[in-house]
Amino acid sequence: MSKAPKLLIVGGGPVGIVSAVAAAQAGFAVELIEAANEIDTRPRASTTHPSTLEMIDRIGLFDRFVAEGLVAREFQFWDRETSTLVATFDHEILRNDTRFPFVVQTEQHKLARMGLDKLREYGVNVRFGVRAVACRQNTDRVLVDAETGEGPETLNADWVIAADGGRSAMRKSLGISFDGYTWPERFVVLTILDDMHAINGYAFRSYFAGTGEWANLFKVAGDDGKGRWRAVFPTAVEETDEEALSDSAAMARLNRLYPLERPYQIVHKNLYAVHQRVAETFRIGRVLLAGDSAHVNNPIGGLGLNFGIHDAMDAVGTLSAVALRGEDPAMLDHYSRRRRFLNVKFVQEQTVANKKRLEEKDTASRQASFDILRTTAADPARARAFLLRSSLIDSVREAAEVA
């Protein structure tokens, strides 16, 4: 019996962990390394679209994923200037397109944790505190130089999936350019305990367009299951970190969104730079990029992590065909072309358009955008087309046609 090829996963975020689970199930000998000493629990991505739920179900995590999150069938667009609801989109219209006509709000660290539990069932070697710093390869193997608590170490594998984030050491070591730009403003995320649905009927995913300041608002379960809301705002370009994260600025932003007679219950504040970048290629030799190592984008629409999980499943599927079933190695080039093309078309273009829709300052243009949203939501055929694209179902369907 031939020995299973070894697949090294670099990066222990949700994309890397999903890659490892799928690869273990496919029959690879899997090892996963992560630079940090534990799972990152800071508030990050949580919106999981129907297309991605199909994949989470495929690797056996769906039931727990739903149990630890919140089901959100609808999302809304609001006019901040008048505090009025513009349009509501209901995923139920996709009931003939997917088994999961809804979004699930499950924080990404929960997905990572449940994936780790699944990896333990398969006996996968998972190593935290191991930082990949460079890689070398030949026609047969990949050597990954890493730093550990015990000193430097060189790992070897037949194949590597690099899922080590936007600052990917693997991508840099391979000399792959990361083309794109950084937005001049940053995003502030404020996590609150106040129930915004009870306060003003906001859906679990709500988007606010306005002349002065746009906002996103969405609900997550929290680790305690009691629920909390995250509000996302842009900073002013000249605003310092201290100003943006001050209690007074946080409270002012929330009260501009919806004024309360009492203080908001803020439990966490986060500030981060926002990028739109795509790697020049998603593959060199025996190393495939997936997730943030290959692409980053603004979070409006919740597409980045979803597409990263799609990368993971595509990468493992492609490697399974080549390394386990002996199919044409040209499929590896197809992976790179396919993932890059789809990311630009369905993630980069869409997230930029989403941001521009919310930040439009011209009143007439903003109202014209609202009119389009209203008529789209009211027309079943147009609403379905809108949701097929926004939920990345169209991306999955088109993937089969991109060689």
Query: What top-tier CATH class fits best?
Result: Alpha Beta
Using the 3D structure, state the CATH architecture.
3-Layer(bba) Sandwich
Radius of gyration: 21 Å
Number of domains: 1
Question: How would you name the CATH homologous superfamily?
Answer: FAD/NAD(P)-binding domain
- Shape from CA axes? globular
Flag low-confidence runs: none
> How is the CATH topology named?
FAD/NAD(P)-binding domain
- Spatial gap, N to C terminus: 33 Å
Care to count the β-strands? 22
Structural class: alpha+beta
Main sheet strand line-up: 6-5-15-16-17-14-18
Gist?
The protein is of the alpha+beta class. Helix content is 38%, strand content 27%.
Explain what this protein looks like in three dimensions:
The chain is of the alpha+beta class and 403 residues long. It has one domain (6-182, 275-399): FAD/NAD(P)-binding domain (3-Layer(bba) Sandwich), CATH 3.50.50. The protein has helices at 14-26, 50-58, 62-67, 108-122, 169-173, 196-200, 241-244, 247-257, 304-324, 330-359, 363-378, 380-390, 393-399, and strands at residues 6-10, 29-34, 47-48, 70-72, 74-79, 84-90, 103-105, 125-128, 131-137, 142-148, 151-157, 159-162, 178-182, 187-192, 205-209, 215-220, 228-234, 266-272, 275-279, 283-284, 287-289, 295-296. The strands form 5 sheets. The chain has a 7-stranded mixed sheet, with helices on both faces. Helix 1 (14-26) packs parallel to helix 4, helix 1 (14-26) runs parallel beside helix 9 and helix 9 (304-324) packs antiparallel against helix 10. It is globular and about 65 Å long.
